[in-house]
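Researcher: I'd like a structural prediction for the single chain below. Treat it as a standalone chain; there are no partners to consider.
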Amino acid sequence: MSKRLATGYCPLCFRYTRLTFHHLIPKKMHRRTYFRKHYSKAQLNEGVAICRKCHDGIHKFYTEMELAKHLNTVERLKQDEKLTRHFEWVSKQAIQL
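Model: Treating it as a single chain, here is the predicted structure.
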């Protein structure tokens, strides 16, 4: 699967821009026993196409373990207070296609 996708609307900041693939359970966690036991391969490979600024913010604020255990759905990402502020900031940034 390509890391960089076509352009589209980011579901987090709602800007029309280039999108990247974000694994909802980071790939680094896939080999850990807990995740292999509790999630199917398909679930481990689920992700969302988001813009680079939102993607960078997600990984800036949280470790891979925190993302894997607590922020592993788009809804949870949107509900997080720190990330919501970041996504609002990103929504006001210039778009680079």
